[in-house]
Automatic annotation (TrEMBL):
It comes from Corynebacterium terpenotabidum Y-11. GO terms for molecular function: asparaginase activity. Keywords: Hydrolase. This is asparaginase. Residues 183-285 form the Asparaginase/glutaminase C-terminal domain. Coiled coil: none annotated.
Length: 296
């Protein structure tokens, strides 16, 4: 009877790999092999590799491209240990560009904490890898679908939730297209915001924009810049800065969601602004590979 290959662990740093420095700050110091040993797992269960070694708040699109390539090249189920700061963005990219049994996990407390949560999360991730068919985030005893996952608490063990967004499936097959070189900016609407914020993003070379709008997707004072961006052919996605509920473009007026939708702005639905940004980046990456001459 053949034995299943061990799960591949790709470590990227994050709190799960952090210990306290001499100044009391947290820095990623633990290697993939040390994480496996901390969790009481054996090399026969997990083949460990260090893919990156950084705080996830510092992760670039080039770093994400490297991680996606390593996941793609691994055999069998893959566990990615990752910082919680930007885990939801990596989870979206993994789901949309790769799919398959990929489990992302991390920690809310560092490895040298008196009661670290990382080892338990890693053990749970190994258990989840036995049955996962699509990407999930495993934290605090829960397995949450990667598509639509978001960080809902800064310190609680159960750091991630999902509002129940239907998974559309992967955008491509084979080697994922690179994200590096693309730029999608998020611009938040607030009282007194003006179009110069949008114009600055376009001038900086944005290939698309996400508007974190008021209420159900209204842009307010950003609207003249949004109109100019749409006229220039840039994709614009309307999201909401509100924690719960979808974008529902029903308001008229200059900055209303219905007005902007009529001009070509897209609805982000239930996606948070960071998720909508990654969704658009993935779409643009796939389109760029299909038509390299069209950079916008």
């Amino acid at each position: 009877m053949s034995q299943s290959p061990p799960v591949t662990l790709l470590a990227t740093g994050g709190t799960i790999a952090c210990t306290s420095s001499a100044t009391g700050t947290l820095v990623p110091t633990r290697t993939a092999g040390e994480l496996v040993r901390d969790a009481g797992l054996s090399p026969g269960q997990v083949t460990a590799h260090d893919a990156l070694h950084l705080d996830s708040s510092e992760m670039t699109l080039a770093d994400l491209d490297q991680l996606l390539r390593e996941i793609r090249g691994a055999t069998g189920p893959v566990i990615v240990t990752h910082g919680t700061d930007s885990m939801e963005e990596t989870a979206m990219a993994v789901d949309r560009l790769l799919g398959g049994p990929v489990i992302l996990t991390g920690a809310q407390r560092p490895a040298d904490d008196p009661a670290p949560d990382g080892p338990g999360n890693l053990r749970d991730a190994v258990c989840a890898a036995a049955s996962a068919t699509t990407p999930v985030v495993v934290m605090g005893g829960a397995a949450v679908p990667a598509y639509g996952v978001r960080k809902v608490h800064t310190t609680a063990d159960g750091a991630f939730g999902n509002p129940g967004i239907p998974r559309p499936g992967t955008l491509c097959g084979g080697t994922p297209p690179p994200l590096a070189g693309l730029r999608v900016d998020i611009i938040m609407a607030y009282q007194g915001a003006d179009a110069s914020l949008v114009d600055a993003a376009v001038a900086a070379g944005a290939h698309g924009l996400v508007i974190a709008g008021f209420g159900s997707g209204n842009a307010g004072g950003l609207t003249p810049g949004v109109r100019r961006a749409l006229d220039a052919g840039l994709p614009v996605v309307l999201c909401t800065r509100v924690p719960g509920g979808p974008v529902d473009a029903i308001y008229g007026g200059d900055g209303g969601g219905a007005t902007l939708a009529a001009l070509g702005a897209r609805s982000g639905g239930l996606l948070s602004p960071p998720q909508a940004r990654m969704e658009l980046l993935c779409q643009l990456a796939v389109a760029r590979r299909a038509n390299p001459a069209d950079q916008r």
